[in-house]
């Protein structure tokens, strides 16, 4: 039975290159606000590309985020006043992948030449007031407020603990297997100077000894709450070749959504994600398959959502994700040629920073440039799996 | 944030009014009888006004968790508690978000049969409300 659908896209293979990347500092509560964070990341992305602010004529951000860095913010920050193409279909999560589609259209129509997409959060700083943050939208939605929250099915860790129980029931997935994924991402963060959990080592025994928050999930299975952000610059491949960095090329994108969205309590297959509706389109557009991918960035708001998406993208058979991640298979130094699948080589949302996927894409660009801290040998093709619970997206990138 | 079901919310109040009287009622299409969940303004298939219908209260555990830490302050008094998605007997594709009560966490498993019961809940500073919760059925 089908329980979701794929979004149709015309092919944009080879139409967009990522020509610049920039990141803010990542931290816990820092007192910075999200616009300041975004501005820092955008400045660094522009400089990385070898451009100047007046070259940027397109701005993308997430319309879902009231504090997003808009075109008006761009002019105010950089003291510019030129014509800007603007799109609210950007940002992090699923849009960190699908932003390339709107960018391709704008580039094709000549509406913009250099487009910056940014995403930033200050949720660590704002957490004490519960103003904004990941739970706020869920609490304000009528059906969730009336028919889910009164029963205690809230906030997000509860949703995915519930999904994890189903995955364990159907497939025999174990806490130790979730722990393998968690500790591998942590080991990546321990080697990564920008990662929030850089200095906090975590062995599998440590993980298993930790109490559960909501069975079967421990705090280590749940994303951090962070201040931070990132930005990347998109242009045509031809223009990118004249800039400072070796271009990274968008080969494919995909997007899938569940029936009954946004209500994941009604998702028919509770041990899967809509990534199964997103990845096939992206692989098809790129003319590649899962086995061709050298390095993966998977949205890991929870360990179980990363594990399920690895299955749903076809890196292993459905239900075999638990066994697949065992034995350090997701480590950066286990390339595909030796049976590995290097994944979240920066540490992910679990151990690097919770910046909702923008840092995953930036990490993949570094990998394809050959400049990552945890560099995967001969990385030529990368995939990002984006997620918002009821939606998933996929972005395939290649070394230009 | 205060958690009390809104008895004036047109889409969802019939659920809570029935629960207050000890009945589990969900909306359905008046012609086909098919459950429409979550509630909508009208039947998505035929456009007719939905009819609220009493259900058997039987179902199975589609999925669950045992909440052991105060992830949300309004639930702190409930710990530990067992939120569950209940697949309803009349249409297992319909999941009721609810809780399992009167059971040990280690006795709960997916796909076990359950039966509705009605209990008063109070979340933090909110008002008391009667809610349809579920018991594991004795085999
Ligand atoms: Zn009807």
UniProtKB/TrEMBL annotation, chain A:
Residues 262-399 form the Thiolase C-terminal domain. Transmembrane segments: none annotated. It comes from Sediminihaliea albiluteola. The lineage of its organism: Bacteria, Pseudomonadati, Pseudomonadota, Gammaproteobacteria, Cellvibrionales. This is Transporter. CDD domains: SCP-x_thiolase (cd00829). GO terms for molecular function: acetyl-CoA C-acyltransferase activity.
TrEMBL record, chain B:
It comes from the Bacteria. Signal peptide: none annotated. Pfam families: OB_ChsH2_C, zf-ChsH2. InterPro entries: ChsH2_C (IPR002878), ChsH2_Znr (IPR022002), NA-bd_OB-fold (IPR012340), Thioester_dehydratase-like (IPR052513). Residues 52-119 form the ChsH2 C-terminal OB-fold domain. Residues 16-49 form the ChsH2 rubredoxin-like zinc ribbon domain. PANTHER family: BLR3430 PROTEIN. This is OB-fold domain-containing protein. The lineage of its organism: Bacteria, Pseudomonadati, Pseudomonadota, Gammaproteobacteria, Cellvibrionales.
């Amino acid at each position: 039975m089908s329980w979701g659908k794929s979004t149709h896209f015309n092919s944009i293979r080879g139409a967009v290159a990522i020509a610049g990347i920039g990141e803010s500092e990542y931290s816990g509560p820092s007192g910075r606000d999200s616009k300041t964070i975004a501005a820092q990341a955008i400045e660094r992305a522009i400089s990385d590309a070898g451009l100047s602010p007046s070259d940027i004529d397109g701005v993308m951000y997430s319309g879902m985020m009231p504090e997003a860095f808009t075109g008006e913010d761009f002019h105010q920050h950089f003291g510019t006043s030129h014509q800007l193409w603007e799109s609210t279909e950007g940002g992090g999560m699923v849009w960190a992948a699908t932003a390339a589609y709107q960018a391709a259209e704008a580039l094709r129509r000549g509406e913009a030449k250099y487009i910056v997409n940014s995403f930033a959060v200050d949720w660590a700083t704002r957490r004490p007031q519960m103003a904004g943050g990941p739970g706020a939208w869920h609490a304000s939605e009528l059906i969730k407020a009336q028919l889910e929250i009164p029963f205690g099915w809230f906030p997000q860790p509860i949703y995915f603990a519930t999904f994890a129980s189903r995955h364990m029931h159907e497939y025999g997935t174990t806490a130790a297997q979730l722990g393998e994924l968690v500790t591998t991402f942590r080991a990546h963060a321990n080697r990564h100077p920008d990662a929030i959990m850089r200095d906090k080592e975590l062995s599998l025994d440590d993980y298993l000894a930790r109490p559960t928050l909501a069975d079967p999930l421990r705090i280590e299975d749940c994303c951090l709450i962070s201040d931070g952000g990132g930005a990347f610059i998109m242009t045509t491949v031809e223009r990118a070749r004249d800039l400072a960095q070796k271009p990274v090329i968008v080969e494919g994108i995909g997007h899938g959504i569940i029936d009954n969205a946004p209500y994941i309590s009604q998702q028919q297959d509770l041990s899967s994600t809509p990534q199964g509706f997103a990845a096939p389109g992206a692989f098809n557009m790129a003319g590649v398959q899962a086995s061709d991918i050298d390095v993966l960035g998977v949205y890991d708001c929870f360990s179980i959502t990363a594990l399920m998406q690895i299955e749903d993208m076809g890196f292993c058979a459905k239900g075999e994700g638990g066994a697949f991640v065992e034995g350090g298979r997701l480590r950066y130094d286990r390339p595909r040629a030796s049976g590995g699948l290097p994944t979240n080589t920066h540490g992910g949302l679990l151990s690097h920073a919770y910046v909702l996927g923008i840092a995953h894409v930036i990490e993949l660009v570094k990998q394809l440039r050959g400049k990552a801290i945890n560099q995967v040998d001969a990385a030529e093709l990368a995939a990002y799996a984006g997620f918002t619970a009821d939606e998933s997206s996929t972005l395939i990138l290649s070394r230009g | 944030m205060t958690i009390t079901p809104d008895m004036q919310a047109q889409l969802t109040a019939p659920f809570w009014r029935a629960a207050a009287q000890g009945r589990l009622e969900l909306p359905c299409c008046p012609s086909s009888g098919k459950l429409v969940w979550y509630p909508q303004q009208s039947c998505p298939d035929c456009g007719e006004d939905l009819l609220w219908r009493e259900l058997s209260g039987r179902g199975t555990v589609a999925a669950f968790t045992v909440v052991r830490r105060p992830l949300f302050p309004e639930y702190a008094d409930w710990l530990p508690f067992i939120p569950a998605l209940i697949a309803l007997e009349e249409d297992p594709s319909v999941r009721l978000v609810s809780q399992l009560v009167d059971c040990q966490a280690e006795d709960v498993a997916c796909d076990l049969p359950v039966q509705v019961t009605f209990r008063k809940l109070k979340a933090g500073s909110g008002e008391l409300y009667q809610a349809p919760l579920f018991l594991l059925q004795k085999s």
